[in-house]
Predict the 3D structure of the following.
Amino acid sequence: MLTIIKSLLGVARAPFLLLPVTLVAAGAAASAYDGGISLLRTAAALVGLLALHIGVNAINEAADMRSGIDLKTVRTPFSGGSGTLPAGKLSIRAAYSFGFVATAVGLAIGVWFLIQVGWVLVPIVAVGAFSVLMYTHLLLRIGVGEVFAGLGLGALPIVGAAVVQDGVIGPAAVGAAAPAFFMTFNLLLLNEFPDAEADRAGGRRHLVILLGRAGAARIYAIAAIAAPASIVAAVVYGALPALCIVAVLPTLLVAPALRWTFTKASQPVPTGALAGNVIWNLATNVLNAVALGVCAWQGWS
């Protein structure tokens, strides 16, 4: 039993499940700043998003094993899959089943929220479901995987975690969602560089393949700059409180990745750049959540 649990956690990519936690925290804190928060609905949103994230990860692992991508990738701590299926620790069928069950749990919670909140949630649930179910088999093959990653595991979870509180999308939720989109977009984009040749052989057509390493590196740099710029803009225009400017600080963590994009994009991505990219995402969302929470608690603007 313990072996099976470890294998399921492997295809779920357990170390990467911190991202949904930070997104829900930022969305709930944004709602608290904009007007109100429900701990029960926040907990339900977290369970739902975790289930959807597990679903997309497990389905992706199963599809990569079936297509042969997982047998050709050079794994890093941040890319190339978990290695669970190539090691024979779980079958492709079991990974698919696990992914679909997790997705069903997430969608069931989404339906419950639809009943509680109303039609304002429909576009969020619909795009989220489409992103999970079509991410591996369609979106990564037509050059829009990064955009839907930015939506499905960036902007929409923050907006969704806020709107399920009281059915209202407030300005703070939009302000916190914008940098989350750019960061998750970049989270996927940078991790695609080490896997580009294996992905090409497996039929994928993501930005690194479509634009080449230099072109995709420039897109990464633009999105990396757009994330902190969107925070500054949201503060200037009053969508986010002034304290949220602290969420710009983790951008320093992408300095190694930006240095690589401008000088060595033809070479392998340094592991330190991949690590900084991940921590940047998590730290920025956390600081936004903390700043919004403090301002909501203190009544600051």
